[in-house]
Amino acid sequence: MKLPLSFRGLFSARSNVRPARPAATKRPSYRARLEFLEDRLVPSTLFVDDDRAQRPQAQYTSIGAAVAAAQPGDTIRVFAGTYNESVDVDKTLTFVADRRGGSVIVDPAALGAGFDVQANNVRISGFTIQDAQGNAGINLGRTFSGAVIQNDVFQDNTFGIYLNSDGARTTVIAGNAFLHNNADGAAAGNGIYSDQGATNVRIVGNYFTGQENASVIFVGNGSTDQAQSNIRVEGNAMIDDAPMIFVNLKQSQISHNVSIRSVGTGIFFGGGVTQTEVVGNVLRDGAFTGINLRTDTVNYPVTAPNTNNLIRNNFISGFGDSGIRLRDGAANNLVAGNWVLNNGTGGDPTTGDGISLENAQNNIVRDNQARDNRRDGIRADADSAGNRIIHNTMLDNGEHDAHDDSTGTRTAHTANFWIDNTGRTQNHPGLLDRIFRGRSGNGHGHDHDHDHDHDHDHDDDDRSEHHHGHDD
Fold this sequence. Notes:
This protein is mainly β. It is about 5% helix and about 35% strand. The strands form three sheets. Strands 1-2-5-8-11-14-17-20-23-26-29-32-35-38-41 form a 15-stranded parallel beta sheet, with helices on one face. A 15-stranded parallel beta sheet has the order 3-6-9-12-15-18-21-24-27-30-33-36-39-42-43, with no helix packed on it. The model is unreliable at about 1-40 and about 440-470 (pLDDT under 50).
């Protein structure tokens, strides 16, 4: 890792020789000693080696001792070994794991977090942080920001990173691996967990596997003290892991992530999420829903529905119930350009749609492809109204391609607008403008319209992810 710019070059480049002034005008001056300026201004590198096998001249055998001796701006380079300590970081420092001799392991056990960061602009790179019992691998304090946590491994902690920030500087979590962080304790089973507030955060290019509750979870209560905004979750891989969960989130982006075989939903909005983009994600073969917009007041500190969000160009396939669900008052969201295929694998008769509107109002569902889902391609329930369902293609879905149980004065006597949609089957004539008569690829398609309606009672059993509160 490149160290901060040194001031040594500034001194060496300047000449100490100046033209002499006449004795009568020469002014007395004070010139600081070069060594004194270096002590104050030039960052130092401190070396830590637990057994001094890799670095015999290392000044310290524990990371904590190096932190105590360091000045703000210094770098602490740690050599291979296992460091059974919880490192309190109260100044701006850079920690670099030198792995040429093997892994650099921080194992705090019951002592606390691997690193407890209570300072701005702290960088931690290359460590394996494990076995924090009842705690996080790294704790980032709420009143600080600018941390860069990069290329670390978090394994077998209660949870990986406790991510909070004041947003004054960008906090970056990049290129890390989060492996089965499920040890007993509050907030167990989460890769990245936040409940005290975080803004101006980038979570980029990380790998998650084996967490049991959430890969990434932001569950601030929506107050100013726990504000959550300007969060970017981008380009991460969640393989055999858990959902991405967001509550009371504003003006953020979840984009180009891959989630395969989630133990729950792919992306879950628990309520109060607004002005957030969900773009270009690949979500496959999860247990519950691909993207679920719900107001879950039982498990999360929310009262508001999810509104004014953009769900665009996602690929969603093979989920246990439905591909995309807009529920519990979800309003003014745009769902556009998504592919939702082969959902409903769990067999629940009350789900299994490509896109479903459940007590959802004034949303736009446009230019989506909904194919081969177990129940309906796009379905609006009796409580959904004012939605505009425009230019979608729905083919080879098990019950109907287009289904609307509402009643009103809009398209086909429903409470919603169905405009320029293509499909084969519908529960009311008029939902489809173009009846596709082509050959069905899987045996679900029909060459005639279905005018009869199949009603199912919705028990609203979401099987949603549980929220584990943190005690701090």
